[in-house]
Structures are given as structure tokens and as C-alpha cells.
Amino acid sequence: MSLAQTEAVQLFDLKKYQIDNLSVNFPLQGQSIEIELQNQGGRIRFIADIDNANEFVKKAKFQMRYKKVFSLRRLDLNGNHRNPPENAPSSLFEGYENYVFNKEDHIHFYIEGYGERWALPLAKFPEIGIKETDDLFEKMQKFFKYCNVEKLTVNKLLDL
């Protein structure tokens, strides 16, 4: 099962809305949640993943998926990853071949033929607006805004 790159870009660019508008709580450490989203007409479905790893490793993951299997974008906070060693799939990734992220914030991109195996440092995307001083909840809000999610009804219960 694959997804054409042009379709992946179009899907990412769509405005997305929470299906049920039910309020959910931001996950506690060690927990995760999935929130179902759709485009304005309701024909195309997405999933927003919020994974608050645990207090010992201080990791978290926010992800925008299509058809449950295609991760259009994923933000790994304090994560580890190695990009593929082969030639960069586009000029955006040049210089990041075989790049190793070691406890570094980075964004994975869906690339046709590679899935989400390619990532770039979060610092390359100041337009997302995530600052080091932001808590997890603020980082989540900014990431999903970047993913064109119009509104998530997620409650912040604790200081994160």
C-alpha cells in the first residue's frame, strides 16, 4: 500500500476538523490518545496521535495520520532516529543523509517510497512557532495548527 507524493501533500494541506468535538484530556505520562479528524466535507479521515511517553525519558510524539497507516507528519520530542544513508529524496533533505538525531526534536515527513523514514530537525521550521520554553501542551497545539487542524478539544489538566 502506497501513497503518491502529490496526494500526500494535498492531504497534509487540507483543513482538518475533529469529528465528534468531544473534549478529551491531554494524556498523562506513559499514556497516548487518538483523535479522529476529517476534512470539511467529511469524506477524508485522519487521526491525530498524542503520545506522552514517560517521565524518565522525557519523550513525546505528535502525529498526523491518514488511513491509519500513512504518517503525513510526526514530531518526535527528545527522540532518537537515523535518516536513510541513500541520496536525499529532495533538496529539502540534502545534507541530512544518514543524519543521526540523538535526543533531538525532529519532524518526520511522508515521502513516497520511504514512508516516514526521513526527518529534519525541528529547528529548521521556525514557522511552526515551537519554543524550547513551551510545555508539551503548547507544543502539541502548535504542531497540529501546522498540520492544518482547525480545533482540537483537548484539555490541559496538569502543568506539563
Automatic annotation (TrEMBL):
InterPro entries: DUF6978 (IPR053916)
Listed Pfam families: DUF6978
Stated name of the protein: Lj965 prophage protein
Record organism: Runella aurantiaca
